[in-house]
Amino acid sequence: MKKLSPLQIERLKYQPKLPSSLAKGINCLELVEGEATQSVRDQEQIKALFKNTYGKPVVTFNSTSSNKVSELRNVGVILSGGQAPGGHNVIAGLYDALKQANSANKLYGFLGGPSGIIDGKYVEFTDEFIDAYRNTGGFDIIGSGRTKLETEEQFQKALAVCKSLNISAVVIIGGDDSNTNAALLAEWFVKNNAGIQVIGCPKTIDGDLKNEQIEISFGFDTATKTYAELIGNIQRDANSAKKYWHFIKIMGRSASHVALEAALQTQPNITLISEEVEEKKMSLESIINYMTDIIVKRADMGKNFGIAIIPEGLIEFIPEMKSMIANLNDIMATLENDPDFVNATTIREKFDIVENRLEAANAKVYNSLPALIKEQLLADRDPHGNVQVSKIETEKLLIEMISTRLDELKSQGDYIGKFSAQSHFFGYEGRCAFPSNFDADYCYSLGFNAFALINFGLTGYLSSVRNLTKPASEWLAGGIPLTMMMNMEKRHGEFKPVIQKALVKLDGPVFKALEECRADWALNDRYLFPGAVQYFGPCEVCDITTCTLQLERAKELASV
């Protein structure tokens, strides 16, 4: 028998809270439809691509006194994309609702992500199986994967597997790309009269899958609390030793929500926000000058230490770097089959070949970078053909360039301090943490709610639970059409329908909260030390959610 830690034993006992509308029972619900919807952009194009699932209404659930009998339903579930704390609870909530509706219902978990439904690899869940994973982190209950569901052949195979198991609904738990796949699959099933529903659940620790109906994606709460604990620990160390600058890169490629939230929880000396860099067209040099200026001013105060937070995707938001990387992505697709490049015996030869192929301005930028970064930019591309920014050590690039700049200032007599830096990257540390009470409750509710959507025959919807700054009993359960979140974007040279990413809004309350305090935090040590995620104790400690959600909800409620 597998040995469990004391914390895991206690967490398995935790009973997640549900919205009052769902808590009365899955068969005691009524569906309330709102107005018809449309996509966030490119309405005519999205409508043409989703003729059968476009324009559906937002729905909510109310509890009723009637207790209806649920028909027999077998459901399949897929974990898709990167891990996020709480995924196991989505499945647990889905399972409990399904069994509550009809004890003969079955839940199948497809193994290894979307490829499982194509290849027919699955497991049937049982009480004992599910109970071993309640309130735990990770996706190891069935594993995850990044296979895209988008071709006719894949859809046909998925249909055949579902028919063989008598599955009438599939729940896809994932981020923006995964739920785009869910929308495509839902449309195909309706178009082909397959009789199979598709429901999505909003997952990503990056926090970029949200809108008015999806207040937060699950995992963001736990991940940011985990990173904030680590940053707080480093701040305490820096404030004790008083001799190191810590450059901390933090997960979040397309959006800086994680970095912004972690900064609000810990109050570091420097916080870079990718969206701000892009909006202000800040060059790499201007970023170096901004950070160097703070380092010099702190040194003048006798403080040769500090904390800098850097978003993972920063390098792609710097205008000249963005242009160079786009150019590099295009030429790397051709260089993969270029014998001169493939057979080059030294990395210097590869650098020369790349610089000769790049446009003049981009070649100049590439040539100015340290060799370590130039080499990392040539690494294997992601499935979209883009550079894998998580492998670009932006924090080390900034350290090296700032160090060079400080040496110049020292030679001119304009800097008298000592600069010694440590680099960190916090990413995987937050993806599989034990979910916070908030994420445990939220994820369980999302899964339970997903089956409610299935029970009413809906398809092409995303499970939505709102009003999340209130106690769980006051949360509002329902669903929104996946097409409502979509727009057209260029992928692999052609425009495709995708769920729009939610980036940091520079005029929003969350960024404004950082902006108001930034100058003070830069020079004065206002460090906060959040400590570990708390699971037992007063609600104001254990159930509190992110600064981001509190600030956004406060503004939303104030405008009502």
Strand content: 15-25%
Largest sheet: 9 strands, mixed
What is the share of helical residues? 40-55%
What's the number of helices? 23
- Rounded Rg: 25 Å
The count of β-strands is 15
Please name the CATH topology of the largest domain. Rossmann fold
- Structural class given helices, strands, pairing? alpha/beta
Distance between the termini: 54 Å
Strand arrangement, major sheet? 1-2-13-12-7-6-3-4-5
Overall average residue pLDDT: 94
Tell me the domain tally: 2
Shape: globular
Residue windows where pLDDT falls under 50 for at least 5 positions: none
For the record, what CATH class of the largest domain applies?
A: Alpha Beta
| CATH architecture assignment name of the largest domain | 3-Layer(aba) Sandwich
Q: What does this entry look like structurally?
A:
With 560 residues, the protein is an alpha/beta fold. Helices cover 44% and strands 16% of the residues. It contains 23 helices and 15 strands. The strands form three sheets. The chain has a nine-stranded mixed β-sheet with strand order 1-2-13-12-7-6-3-4-5, sandwiched between helices. The protein has a four-stranded parallel β-sheet with strand order 9-10-8-11, with helices on both faces. Strand 6, helix 8 and strand 7 form a beta-alpha-beta unit. The longest helix is centred in the middle third of the chain and has 22 residues.
